[in-house]
Write a structure and sequence with these properties.
Aspartate Aminotransferase, domain 2, about 400 residues, 12 strands, globular, Aspartate Aminotransferase, domain 1, 5-stranded mixed sheet, about 15% strand, binds pyridoxal-5'-phosphate, 2 domains, 7-stranded mixed sheet
Length: about 400
Protein backbone atom coordinates (compact mmCIF):
# COMPACT_ATOMS: atom_id res chain seq x y z
CA UNK A 1 0.00 0.00 0.00
CA UNK A 2 1.51 3.32 -1.09
CA UNK A 3 0.16 6.22 0.96
CA UNK A 4 1.12 8.54 -1.90
CA UNK A 5 -1.70 7.03 -3.98
CA UNK A 6 -4.34 7.68 -1.34
CA UNK A 7 -7.12 10.13 -2.10
CA UNK A 8 -7.05 13.48 -0.27
CA UNK A 9 -9.74 12.49 2.26
CA UNK A 10 -7.66 9.46 3.31
CA UNK A 11 -4.36 11.37 3.51
CA UNK A 12 -6.06 14.04 5.65
CA UNK A 13 -7.03 11.38 8.18
CA UNK A 14 -4.18 8.86 8.06
CA UNK A 15 -0.84 10.48 7.13
CA UNK A 16 1.84 11.44 9.62
CA UNK A 17 0.89 9.76 12.87
CA UNK A 18 3.56 7.21 13.80
CA UNK A 19 2.07 5.52 16.85
CA UNK A 20 4.15 5.54 20.04
CA UNK A 21 4.73 2.45 22.24
CA UNK A 22 1.46 3.31 24.05
CA UNK A 23 -0.54 2.31 20.97
CA UNK A 24 -2.69 5.45 21.01
CA UNK A 25 -5.25 5.71 18.21
CA UNK A 26 -5.48 9.52 18.25
CA UNK A 27 -2.30 11.64 17.93
CA UNK A 28 -0.95 12.86 21.30
CA UNK A 29 0.06 16.43 22.17
CA UNK A 30 3.77 16.51 23.04
CA UNK A 31 4.01 19.45 25.43
CA UNK A 32 7.75 19.38 25.96
CA UNK A 33 10.21 22.17 25.24
CA UNK A 34 13.30 19.98 25.00
CA UNK A 35 14.29 16.34 24.46
CA UNK A 36 16.62 13.99 26.34
CA UNK A 37 19.63 12.08 24.96
CA UNK A 38 21.09 8.68 25.85
CA UNK A 39 24.56 10.14 26.26
CA UNK A 40 26.69 13.24 25.88
CA UNK A 41 27.91 11.83 22.56
CA UNK A 42 24.36 11.53 21.29
CA UNK A 43 23.63 15.14 22.32
CA UNK A 44 26.71 16.22 20.37
CA UNK A 45 25.61 14.22 17.31
CA UNK A 46 22.15 15.77 17.40
CA UNK A 47 23.49 19.31 17.74
CA UNK A 48 25.98 18.85 14.91
CA UNK A 49 23.25 17.45 12.68
CA UNK A 50 25.08 14.10 12.29
CA UNK A 51 22.13 12.31 13.84
CA UNK A 52 18.54 13.29 13.02
CA UNK A 53 16.14 13.78 15.92
CA UNK A 54 14.54 16.24 18.27
CA UNK A 55 16.52 18.89 20.14
CA UNK A 56 14.14 21.66 21.12
CA UNK A 57 10.50 22.43 20.26
CA UNK A 58 11.36 25.71 18.54
CA UNK A 59 12.98 23.46 15.89
CA UNK A 60 10.88 20.30 15.88
CA UNK A 61 8.01 18.80 17.85
CA UNK A 62 6.35 15.42 17.19
CA UNK A 63 2.77 16.76 17.22
CA UNK A 64 3.72 19.64 14.92
CA UNK A 65 5.51 17.17 12.65
CA UNK A 66 2.34 15.09 12.14
CA UNK A 67 0.55 18.24 10.97
CA UNK A 68 3.47 19.14 8.67
CA UNK A 69 3.65 15.68 7.08
CA UNK A 70 -0.10 15.59 6.55
CA UNK A 71 -0.36 19.04 4.95
CA UNK A 72 2.71 18.39 2.75
CA UNK A 73 1.05 15.18 1.48
CA UNK A 74 -2.21 17.03 0.75
CA UNK A 75 -0.50 19.86 -1.15
CA UNK A 76 1.85 17.47 -2.94
CA UNK A 77 5.01 19.12 -1.57
CA UNK A 78 8.23 17.54 -0.31
CA UNK A 79 8.25 19.54 2.90
CA UNK A 80 5.96 21.60 5.09
CA UNK A 81 7.07 23.94 7.85
CA UNK A 82 4.35 24.98 10.32
CA UNK A 83 4.29 28.51 11.76
CA UNK A 84 2.61 30.42 14.59
CA UNK A 85 0.25 32.32 12.25
CA UNK A 86 -0.43 32.77 8.55
CA UNK A 87 1.47 36.05 8.62
CA UNK A 88 4.57 34.40 10.06
CA UNK A 89 4.39 31.83 7.22
CA UNK A 90 4.58 34.70 4.72
CA UNK A 91 7.31 36.47 6.72
CA UNK A 92 9.43 33.30 7.00
CA UNK A 93 9.02 32.62 3.27
CA UNK A 94 10.24 36.12 2.39
CA UNK A 95 13.09 36.07 4.92
CA UNK A 96 14.21 32.65 3.77
CA UNK A 97 14.07 33.26 0.03
CA UNK A 98 14.70 37.00 -0.53
CA UNK A 99 17.54 39.38 0.24
CA UNK A 100 18.19 43.14 0.12
CA UNK A 101 18.06 44.42 -3.44
CA UNK A 102 15.46 41.87 -4.57
CA UNK A 103 12.15 42.92 -6.07
CA UNK A 104 8.89 41.23 -5.06
CA UNK A 105 6.00 41.39 -7.52
CA UNK A 106 2.61 40.88 -5.94
CA UNK A 107 -1.05 40.81 -6.86
CA UNK A 108 -2.81 43.96 -5.71
CA UNK A 109 -5.66 41.88 -4.27
CA UNK A 110 -4.00 40.33 -1.23
CA UNK A 111 -4.65 40.21 2.50
CA UNK A 112 -4.27 43.66 4.12
CA UNK A 113 -1.55 42.69 6.61
CA UNK A 114 0.46 41.11 3.80
CA UNK A 115 0.56 44.50 2.04
CA UNK A 116 1.82 46.16 5.23
CA UNK A 117 4.43 43.42 5.71
CA UNK A 118 5.69 43.91 2.15
CA UNK A 119 5.61 47.72 2.01
CA UNK A 120 6.53 48.81 5.51
CA UNK A 121 8.67 46.01 6.90
CA UNK A 122 10.34 44.25 3.94
CA UNK A 123 10.84 47.74 2.47
CA UNK A 124 13.02 48.66 5.48
CA UNK A 125 15.35 45.79 4.65
CA UNK A 126 15.83 46.75 1.02
CA UNK A 127 13.20 44.55 -0.60
CA UNK A 128 11.02 46.55 -2.96
CA UNK A 129 7.45 45.41 -3.73
CA UNK A 130 5.22 46.48 -6.60
CA UNK A 131 1.65 45.45 -7.39
CA UNK A 132 -0.27 44.34 -10.46
CA UNK A 133 -3.92 43.40 -11.14
CA UNK A 134 -4.36 39.72 -10.24
CA UNK A 135 -5.81 38.40 -13.50
CA UNK A 136 -3.84 40.52 -16.01
CA UNK A 137 -1.05 38.25 -17.29
CA UNK A 138 0.42 41.00 -19.52
CA UNK A 139 0.69 43.34 -16.53
CA UNK A 140 2.58 40.66 -14.55
CA UNK A 141 5.00 40.13 -17.44
CA UNK A 142 5.54 43.86 -17.98
CA UNK A 143 6.26 44.50 -14.29
CA UNK A 144 9.06 41.91 -13.95
CA UNK A 145 12.47 43.54 -13.50
CA UNK A 146 15.96 42.00 -13.69
CA UNK A 147 16.03 41.90 -9.88
CA UNK A 148 12.53 40.36 -9.47
CA UNK A 149 12.83 37.13 -7.45
CA UNK A 150 9.30 36.30 -6.37
CA UNK A 151 5.73 36.53 -7.64
CA UNK A 152 3.06 36.43 -4.91
CA UNK A 153 -0.70 35.99 -5.16
CA UNK A 154 -3.94 34.77 -3.61
CA UNK A 155 -6.64 33.16 -5.75
CA UNK A 156 -9.62 33.57 -5.57
CA UNK A 157 -9.18 37.12 -4.32
CA UNK A 158 -10.90 38.53 -1.27
CA UNK A 159 -13.69 39.73 -1.47
CA UNK A 160 -14.35 39.84 -5.25
CA UNK A 161 -13.35 36.21 -5.99
CA UNK A 162 -11.24 37.20 -8.97
CA UNK A 163 -8.88 34.42 -10.15
CA UNK A 164 -5.25 34.18 -11.20
CA UNK A 165 -4.24 31.59 -13.79
CA UNK A 166 -1.68 29.76 -11.63
CA UNK A 167 -0.30 27.60 -14.45
CA UNK A 168 0.25 30.58 -16.78
CA UNK A 169 1.86 32.61 -13.99
CA UNK A 170 4.16 29.73 -13.07
CA UNK A 171 5.44 29.72 -16.66
CA UNK A 172 5.94 33.50 -16.60
CA UNK A 173 7.74 33.28 -13.25
CA UNK A 174 10.07 30.48 -14.36
CA UNK A 175 10.84 32.12 -17.74
CA UNK A 176 12.21 35.05 -15.72
CA UNK A 177 14.02 33.06 -13.04
CA UNK A 178 11.43 33.90 -10.35
CA UNK A 179 9.58 31.81 -7.77
CA UNK A 180 5.79 31.69 -7.70
CA UNK A 181 4.31 31.79 -4.19
CA UNK A 182 0.55 31.15 -3.76
CA UNK A 183 -1.42 31.88 -0.60
CA UNK A 184 -3.87 28.95 -0.77
CA UNK A 185 -5.86 29.90 2.34
CA UNK A 186 -9.25 30.33 0.61
CA UNK A 187 -9.16 26.97 -1.19
CA UNK A 188 -7.05 24.60 0.89
CA UNK A 189 -5.51 21.63 -0.97
CA UNK A 190 -8.96 20.03 -1.13
CA UNK A 191 -10.08 22.56 -3.77
CA UNK A 192 -6.83 23.72 -5.39
CA UNK A 193 -3.24 22.41 -5.48
CA UNK A 194 -0.97 25.19 -6.76
CA UNK A 195 2.20 23.02 -6.67
CA UNK A 196 0.62 20.64 -9.21
CA UNK A 197 -0.01 23.67 -11.45
CA UNK A 198 3.65 24.71 -11.30
CA UNK A 199 3.81 27.05 -8.29
CA UNK A 200 6.98 26.70 -6.16
CA UNK A 201 5.67 27.51 -2.69
CA UNK A 202 2.25 27.41 -1.02
CA UNK A 203 1.58 29.42 2.13
CA UNK A 204 -1.39 28.98 4.46
CA UNK A 205 -3.20 30.65 7.25
CA UNK A 206 -4.29 27.52 9.10
CA UNK A 207 -6.41 29.84 11.25
CA UNK A 208 -9.12 29.72 8.58
CA UNK A 209 -10.46 26.54 6.90
CA UNK A 210 -7.75 24.19 8.23
CA UNK A 211 -8.83 24.85 11.81
CA UNK A 212 -12.36 25.30 10.51
CA UNK A 213 -13.91 26.19 13.84
CA UNK A 214 -12.29 29.53 14.60
CA UNK A 215 -10.23 28.33 17.59
CA UNK A 216 -6.47 28.50 16.94
CA UNK A 217 -3.96 30.66 15.08
CA UNK A 218 -1.38 29.02 12.83
CA UNK A 219 0.16 28.85 9.39
CA UNK A 220 2.32 26.76 7.10
CA UNK A 221 4.74 26.89 4.18
CA UNK A 222 4.85 23.97 1.71
CA UNK A 223 7.34 23.33 -1.09
CA UNK A 224 10.58 21.53 -1.89
CA UNK A 225 13.27 20.22 0.45
CA UNK A 226 15.83 22.92 -0.36
CA UNK A 227 13.69 26.07 -0.21
CA UNK A 228 11.26 25.05 2.52
CA UNK A 229 13.19 22.30 4.34
CA UNK A 230 16.41 24.34 4.48
CA UNK A 231 15.81 28.06 3.89
CA UNK A 232 12.36 28.64 5.40
CA UNK A 233 12.93 26.11 8.20
CA UNK A 234 16.22 27.89 8.96
CA UNK A 235 14.34 31.14 9.61
CA UNK A 236 11.78 29.37 11.79
CA UNK A 237 14.30 27.55 13.97
CA UNK A 238 16.34 30.70 14.44
CA UNK A 239 13.72 33.45 14.66
CA UNK A 240 11.11 31.29 16.39
CA UNK A 241 7.53 31.91 15.14
CA UNK A 242 6.93 28.17 15.51
CA UNK A 243 3.53 26.49 15.82
CA UNK A 244 2.54 25.39 19.32
CA UNK A 245 1.89 21.63 19.74
CA UNK A 246 -1.59 22.32 21.06
CA UNK A 247 -2.54 24.30 17.96
CA UNK A 248 -0.97 21.65 15.72
CA UNK A 249 -3.17 19.07 17.45
CA UNK A 250 -6.30 21.17 16.84
CA UNK A 251 -5.33 21.57 13.16
CA UNK A 252 -4.75 17.81 12.82
CA UNK A 253 -8.33 17.24 13.82
CA UNK A 254 -9.33 20.06 11.48
CA UNK A 255 -7.59 18.29 8.59
CA UNK A 256 -9.46 15.07 9.34
CA UNK A 257 -12.76 16.68 8.33
CA UNK A 258 -11.36 19.15 5.78
CA UNK A 259 -12.45 17.27 2.64
CA UNK A 260 -15.96 16.85 3.98
CA UNK A 261 -16.17 20.45 5.17
CA UNK A 262 -14.83 22.06 1.97
CA UNK A 263 -17.43 20.17 -0.08
CA UNK A 264 -20.20 21.26 2.28
CA UNK A 265 -19.01 24.92 2.39
CA UNK A 266 -18.90 24.91 -1.40
CA UNK A 267 -22.31 23.29 -1.73
CA UNK A 268 -23.97 25.85 0.58
CA UNK A 269 -22.18 28.79 -1.09
CA UNK A 270 -23.18 27.58 -4.56
CA UNK A 271 -26.87 27.40 -3.60
CA UNK A 272 -26.77 30.84 -1.95
CA UNK A 273 -24.91 32.45 -4.87
CA UNK A 274 -27.56 31.22 -7.31
CA UNK A 275 -30.38 32.41 -5.06
CA UNK A 276 -28.74 35.83 -4.58
CA UNK A 277 -28.14 36.22 -8.31
CA UNK A 278 -31.90 36.01 -8.91
CA UNK A 279 -32.80 38.22 -5.95
CA UNK A 280 -34.41 41.55 -6.98
CA UNK A 281 -32.59 43.52 -4.25
CA UNK A 282 -29.12 42.26 -5.19
CA UNK A 283 -27.37 44.03 -8.06
CA UNK A 284 -24.36 41.72 -8.43
CA UNK A 285 -22.95 38.47 -7.04
CA UNK A 286 -19.27 37.48 -7.07
CA UNK A 287 -18.76 33.72 -6.88
CA UNK A 288 -16.47 31.51 -9.02
CA UNK A 289 -19.18 28.83 -9.37
CA UNK A 290 -21.63 31.09 -11.23
CA UNK A 291 -21.78 30.87 -15.03
CA UNK A 292 -21.82 34.70 -14.94
CA UNK A 293 -18.36 34.83 -13.26
CA UNK A 294 -15.99 36.40 -15.82
CA UNK A 295 -13.49 33.57 -15.25
CA UNK A 296 -15.91 30.66 -14.84
CA UNK A 297 -13.92 28.48 -17.26
CA UNK A 298 -10.65 29.05 -15.40
CA UNK A 299 -12.41 28.34 -12.09
CA UNK A 300 -13.72 25.02 -13.42
CA UNK A 301 -10.24 24.06 -14.68
CA UNK A 302 -8.17 25.17 -11.71
CA UNK A 303 -10.43 24.54 -8.71
CA UNK A 304 -12.11 21.23 -7.87
CA UNK A 305 -15.07 23.17 -6.40
CA UNK A 306 -15.80 26.93 -6.24
CA UNK A 307 -15.35 27.27 -2.46
CA UNK A 308 -17.17 28.88 0.44
CA UNK A 309 -16.51 32.60 -0.08
CA UNK A 310 -18.93 34.89 -1.89
CA UNK A 311 -19.73 38.59 -2.10
CA UNK A 312 -22.77 40.50 -3.29
CA UNK A 313 -23.70 44.12 -3.90
CA UNK A 314 -26.78 46.11 -2.94
CA UNK A 315 -27.88 49.55 -4.15
CA UNK A 316 -27.67 52.40 -1.64
CA UNK A 317 -24.02 52.27 -0.62
CA UNK A 318 -22.69 51.95 2.90
CA UNK A 319 -25.95 52.85 4.61
CA UNK A 320 -27.87 50.10 2.79
CA UNK A 321 -25.12 47.50 3.28
CA UNK A 322 -24.97 48.21 7.02
CA UNK A 323 -28.77 47.96 7.25
CA UNK A 324 -28.67 44.51 5.62
CA UNK A 325 -25.87 43.33 7.92
CA UNK A 326 -27.41 44.70 11.10
CA UNK A 327 -30.75 42.98 10.43
CA UNK A 328 -29.13 39.53 10.32
CA UNK A 329 -29.83 37.65 13.55
CA UNK A 330 -27.78 34.45 13.16
CA UNK A 331 -24.81 35.27 10.91
CA UNK A 332 -21.84 36.63 12.90
CA UNK A 333 -20.39 40.06 12.10
CA UNK A 334 -16.69 39.21 12.24
CA UNK A 335 -13.70 39.30 9.93
CA UNK A 336 -12.77 35.65 10.44
CA UNK A 337 -13.54 33.28 7.61
CA UNK A 338 -13.46 29.57 6.88
CA UNK A 339 -15.45 28.83 10.04
CA UNK A 340 -18.36 26.38 10.39
CA UNK A 341 -20.30 29.50 11.43
CA UNK A 342 -21.35 31.81 8.60
CA UNK A 343 -19.73 35.25 8.94
CA UNK A 344 -20.41 38.60 7.28
CA UNK A 345 -18.18 41.63 6.69
CA UNK A 346 -18.53 45.04 5.07
CA UNK A 347 -15.16 45.25 3.27
CA UNK A 348 -15.28 49.01 2.50
CA UNK A 349 -15.31 49.92 6.22
CA UNK A 350 -13.30 47.02 7.69
CA UNK A 351 -10.77 44.91 5.75
CA UNK A 352 -10.40 47.57 3.04
CA UNK A 353 -11.14 50.59 5.25
CA UNK A 354 -7.55 51.85 5.21
CA UNK A 355 -7.63 52.35 1.42
CA UNK A 356 -8.59 55.77 0.06
CA UNK A 357 -11.99 55.99 -1.71
CA UNK A 358 -10.09 56.16 -5.02
CA UNK A 359 -8.05 53.04 -4.22
CA UNK A 360 -11.23 51.21 -3.21
CA UNK A 361 -12.95 52.23 -6.44
CA UNK A 362 -9.93 51.01 -8.41
CA UNK A 363 -10.00 47.70 -6.52
CA UNK A 364 -13.74 47.33 -7.23
CA UNK A 365 -14.74 47.46 -3.54
CA UNK A 366 -18.03 49.38 -3.66
CA UNK A 367 -19.73 50.73 -0.54
CA UNK A 368 -22.67 48.38 -1.16
CA UNK A 369 -20.49 45.26 -1.20
CA UNK A 370 -21.08 42.56 1.45
CA UNK A 371 -18.84 39.52 1.91
CA UNK A 372 -20.09 36.22 3.27
CA UNK A 373 -17.95 33.31 4.43
CA UNK A 374 -20.56 30.62 4.06
CA UNK A 375 -20.64 28.21 6.99
CA UNK A 376 -22.11 24.80 7.58
CA UNK A 377 -25.45 25.70 9.19
CA UNK A 378 -28.48 24.45 7.22
CA UNK A 379 -28.50 26.46 4.00
CA UNK A 380 -32.20 27.31 4.53
CA UNK A 381 -31.35 29.07 7.78
CA UNK A 382 -28.44 31.02 6.26
CA UNK A 383 -30.67 32.04 3.36
CA UNK A 384 -33.47 33.13 5.72
CA UNK A 385 -31.03 35.29 7.69
CA UNK A 386 -29.67 37.00 4.57
CA UNK A 387 -33.27 37.49 3.40
CA UNK A 388 -34.06 39.13 6.76
CA UNK A 389 -31.30 41.61 5.90
CA UNK A 390 -32.37 42.19 2.32
CA UNK A 391 -35.98 42.85 3.43
CA UNK A 392 -34.69 46.07 4.99
CA UNK A 393 -34.13 47.52 1.53
CA UNK A 394 -36.89 49.31 -0.31
C1 LIG B 1 -6.02 35.43 7.47
C2 LIG B 1 -5.19 35.42 6.27
C3 LIG B 1 -3.79 35.54 6.36
C4 LIG B 1 -3.08 35.75 7.68
O1 LIG B 1 -3.23 34.67 8.51
P1 LIG B 1 -3.16 34.79 10.14
O2 LIG B 1 -3.29 33.38 10.56
O3 LIG B 1 -4.31 35.66 10.53
O4 LIG B 1 -1.85 35.40 10.46
C5 LIG B 1 -3.05 35.47 5.20
N1 LIG B 1 -3.65 35.32 4.01
C6 LIG B 1 -4.98 35.21 3.88
C7 LIG B 1 -5.58 35.03 2.53
C8 LIG B 1 -5.80 35.26 4.99
O5 LIG B 1 -7.13 35.17 4.87
Amino acid sequence: MSTGEWKAATKAIRIGHHRTAEGEHSPPIFTTSSYVYESAAQAAARFSGEEPGNIYSRFTNPTVRIFEERLAALEGGERCVATATGMSAILATCMGLLRAGDHLLSSRSIFGSTVILFDKYLGRFGIDTSYVPLSDLEAWKAAIRPETRMLFLETPSNPLTELADIEALAHIAHDHGCLLVVDNCFCTPILQRPLELGADIVVHSATKYIDGQGRCMGGAVVGDEQRVGEEVFGVLRTAGPSLSPFNAWAFLHGLETLALRMKAHSHNADLLAQWLENHPKVSRVHYPGLASHPQAALAARQMDLPGGMLAFEVEGGREAAWRVIDAMRMISITANLGDVKTTVTHPATTTHGRLSPEQRAEAGISDGLIRISVGLEAVEDIQADIERGLEQLR
